[in-house]
Design brief:
Rossmann fold; single chain; three-stranded parallel beta sheet; about 130 residues; globular; two-stranded antiparallel sheet; alpha/beta; 4 helices
């Protein structure tokens, strides 16, 4: 477990998750692997969004069990298509698509890293 936390810390450091962040949103947060740790590192709220109700419920339980007041989770689908957990990579939103959505919503891409084989991190700031 300690090795997993170290890995998460390295990833969050790479994308500059720190006290300078007031609101952090994790799209496809699952059961909160990165978001729980991120909630400890930022100065404001950490918000997770996931399409899988079981993941959302598991994350809610972690939030409650760990008495975390600044982590929140929302059940929802940010895309127009089906992107259920375990879906093929072809139907999941690509980084370019999310960057476009974020830009239209008034955000600017700050950094992007790939975490092969299935994950990526995009960091946005308000324009």
């Amino acid at each position: 477990m300690e090795l997993c936390r170290k890995y998460e810390e390295i990833i969050l450091k790479q994308i500059s998750v720190d006290k300078n962040i007031v609101t952090l949103v994790d799209i496809g947060c699952g059961y909160g692997t990165f978001l729980l740790l991120a909630s400890e590192l930022i100065s404001g709220n950490a918000i997770g969004i996931d399409i899988d109700e079981k993941m959302v419920e598991a994350f809610k339980n972690k939030i409650q069990d760990n008495n975390i007041s600044n982590a929140h989770v929302i059940h929802g689908d940010i895309s127009k298509g089906e992107t259920a957990r375990g879906s093929s990579m072809e139907v999941r939103p690509k980084p370019e698509t999310i960057i476009e959505w974020a830009s239209k919503a008034g955000f600017t891409l700050k950094s992007q890293i790939d975490i092969p084989p299935y994950h990526f991190d995009l960091v946005f700031t308000n324009k």
